[in-house]
Design a protein that fits this description.
By secondary structure, the protein is an alpha/beta fold. It has four helices and 14 strands. It has an eight-stranded mixed sheet with strand order 6-7-8-9-10-11-14-12, covered by helices on one side. Strands 5-4-3-2-1-13 form a six-stranded mixed sheet, with no helix packed on it.
């Protein structure tokens, strides 16, 4: 699978099974995931749109949407053998129930918001993913977070990842797209 950042908090996931767009409707995709209610963003008429909590299956890919707070949805997607999670806006640590949903995540996409880096760090330690991809950051906050993260840091335009890649490394990695 290949993960590309398309905007501040938007991503495109290209895989063998299907293509997923997160928080962007201007990209041709099979599935559109929105971390908050999608009121008028259905320009891509052929895509399946998910913007509320529930369990969904599209082309043998499981999508689990979990309510994070009053307005935000978090997603886990099992695709090409990789468990990927997207968390939109976080204001606090995850509840025990939310941690259960995100427990087996390989790749975690979450925000690095100025003044909330410690919350981001705590959420990462709650979930313990192999790979962390930040979104919604400015240069100062990502620099600070990269130093605090301390493990491998990789800057790239696209992340190509497979289940095999994840099993070969036991070290947590930060990937900045």
């Amino acid at each position: 699978m290949e993960i590309t950042k398309t905007d501040k908090n938007s991503f495109f996931i290209n895989s063998k099974a299907l293509n997923i767009s997160i928080n962007a409707d201007n990209i041709k995709a099979d599935v559109l995931l929105f971390s908050n209610k999608n009121t008028d963003k259905q320009k891509n008429a052929d895509a399946r749109v998910f913007d509320s909590a529930g369990e969904y299956e599209v082309r043998k890919c499981m999508i689990d949407a979990t309510q994070l707070n009053e307005s935000e949805i978090g997603f886990t997607v099992l695709i090409d053998g990789v468990q990927l999670a997207y968390i939109g806006n976080i204001e606090d640590m995850l509840t025990d129930k939310q941690v259960e949903v995100f427990a087996a995540v390989d790749v975690l996409i979450l925000p690095i918001v100025d003044g909330k880096a410690e919350i981001t760090t705590k959420v990462i330690s709650q979930i313990e993913p192999s790979t962390v991809i930040p979104h919604s950051y400015d240069e100062g906050s990502i620099e600070t977070f990269s130093k605090e993260f301390g493990n491998d840091v990789e800057k790239t335009a696209k992340l190509k990842i497979s289940k095999k890649d994840l099993t070969e490394s036991d070290k947590q990695k930060l990937v900045i797209l």
